[in-house]
Records
---
Amino acid sequence: MPQAPRTELNPAYSDESAVAVEWAQAEALLVEAELFWISTVRPDGRPHVTPLPAVWRDGKLYFCTGAQERKALNLAANPQLVLTTGTNTWNKGFDVVVEGAAVRVTDDARLRTLAAAWECKYGSFWHFDVNDGCFEHGAGKALVFEVAPRTAFGFGKGEPFSQTRWTFGD
């Protein structure tokens, strides 16, 4: 079980009545979220952002992508990324931003567990077979990555506005 993160409210970006949000609330949002936005950096330094589905499991976020997709190519050069989810509104909801490094998952037994989690969350359209350290779907293969949060931010929108920071590890 991952260690609980250090939790801090940033008073500069929070209403006076705001309190730090517990990590369990953010984690519940990560479990339920259907869509995430992944931000990576191209080899020439330009940003790249795209939506994708992801699964939260055992304290980590998991996503998949084709080996020749821009995000996979970016991660091969620089594994640092940001995954974001929340609501597309200003005055209500809660957004979570997770910073970390992508690590490729290649163990077939672990991938089978993750494939089952994908299908459970997203339905049979997202059924994956596992072969040779990859997800397979029809004629395509996908690399699977895990991201252990290094730092995460939560943005409470509406009354009260808040910004919580969670720091993992040292």
---
Amino acid sequence: MTQEDVSYKDKKVISIGIVSELTGLSVRQIRYYEERKLIYPQRSTRGTRKYSFADVERLMDIANKREDGVQTAEILKDMKKKEQALKSGQFKKKMLEGQINAHFRYKNR
């Protein structure tokens, strides 16, 4: 997938300073969440972190959960569970589409 194929929401184009302004989080907090594997910024050739709008939304979600007292380990566990469920749902959808396509191809012969 090329950069042009990526939704505007997922393009990694926002600097950490702007992300800090948008979220109200300090640069240190944002880096900490990266260290805890809660966020994955892209790095430019010069090593500058670049974030997407989806990353900003994720950081806001993390900040809200932290304000509610949820630990980062629990947030990570929950995120992995949601990602796995999404992947599983996508896999099931593809399997169903394949079965439907195979069924109708077979009937049309």
---
Amino acid sequence: MSVEYRWLWPSALAADPAGPLPARRSTRDWLVDTVCFVLGMGATVTITHALLYPPDGFVAAGIGSPTWLIWVDAVASGIAAVGLWWRRRFLAPLAVYLALLSFFSPASGITLLIVVFTVAVHRPFAVLGTYVAVVLASSAVFAALMPEIVAGFWQTFAWGAVMAVFAALCGMLVRARRQLIVSWRDRAERAEAEQRLRVAQARVVERTRIAREMHDVLAHRISLLSLHAGALEFRPGAPPEEIAGAAAVVRASAHQALQDLRAVIGVLRTGQSEDEPAPERPQPTLAALAGLAEESRSAGTKVRLDVAVDPAAVPAATARAGYRIVQEGLTNARKHAPGAAVRVTVSGAPDDGLTIEIRNPLPVSVPVAPIPGTGVGLIGLAERALLAGGRLDHGRTGGEFVLTAWLPWQASP
């Protein structure tokens, strides 16, 4: 690109509201380019004919340009009219060519106005203002020098200036409209992208929640399976009745684990909304604590359950979180202190909150084959309690491992 065009060309594509030029013209582009070519070439032919064959009054007055200058103007203006076919791609060279031609050429007037309009559409205002100033200067020189002008300098200059400014204003209006449409399109695309991102994030959150539910549900069942299977392994000589009973418990626990897993996966398939009632499973409430304690007792864990609240009076969300905390607490005790007695206390009142305390003695020795686990059960419980608006603490206290959780309990209005 030559140096003399850099003031007009470098910001073109970046500022063009129509975006990069397409590889092929559309039907609309063909129609517009045809109209522009017809107007530019038609004006060139008409004005050239009028200059070659002026009215009798002009001839009598001795007014007219030399024939050679008229033909030079006609050829130069014809080249400019042909250049309108490529005015979008080569706008800068065409605009500079017409600015120089306008100093002496009456036949290129319409072509010049079309280029002014195009510059206004495809270039920023600073470039347009500079180009219009050059066109106005050339109009002043043209009005002062050309012998065809009989209407006077100011009248001729005023007509040229008004038409140039009008073409520029029309181009600016089209440019503003295109920029507005582009901004609307960008906003719509951003809104769609943000909506897709929100949907993806919601899916990730829901899958994380379901994975946490699967851990809470299955860890309890599988720990029971591990205990009973271990008893069968280390007591191969037990009476047939005990072996049959342990095997029945293993079978029942495995069946129950499959049912829980099927219920959790069902949440993924049905896409349950928040307005629908919560399923009975895999989200049991405090009313199921008795059954939970009985399952642990059948596995050989001594469980003392003290529930000092009415499970039906506890809000559903709080009751579900409380059940999961007790379930994970019992699972944690079986993993790390097998055979130890566990005491579970549930107390509280509306507006005071729900308090859950799980205590078990520290194990005397670590079991040879401890129940495997991921080690994130208590972390998940702490996160669950935090999401519910409560808190969870755990640690060793006086030879015992104590897990304490507090959950908010708002009184019903």
---
Amino acid sequence: MSGGVRFDARMVWPMPQLLVQWIAGADARSLVAGILLALALGLYLYNAGRLAVIDVRSHLLPNRILAPWSGAALVLLGAAALLAGEPRVLLRAVTGSAILFGAYLLLHLLAPSGMGLGDVKLAAVLGLYLGFVSYMHLLWASVLAFVIGALWTAVLLIARRLTLRSSVAFGPFMLVGAATALAIPG
């Protein structure tokens, strides 16, 4: 982009800072890239809230939410990256999606009762957002999800609200871990 705030794919900006930089950019392409990123983040927050409630109540992450979210996130994040003149960011987002999907699929295959296919599909969507920022964010989000999930489960076990045979919805922890990772530099 000429004249505007240039996104350097080698730098790792947290999404909120990147959003402000693009919207405050000096040219129309930067502004539109910022708006598209804002829409993608708004979509994240909206769907994260819906999915967290559904997953806690029913231990399901419905395809009717995940599939359209995945497509919309790909379009919004991809268009933002291309408008910013950074096709590498789009490639990294798609690769991040594949990496996180593959990692969670492996976990599902190793322990199907511990990791559902809804979690695997959610990982693909989250990988788009995390890969958009950096590959390191994939790792941080996953670590955060497991740590927060383990701590929460330990608290519930100590409070005797759960037993060792109880199941805990993991989707909300994935969403919180990813949101936290997206807000911090890598």
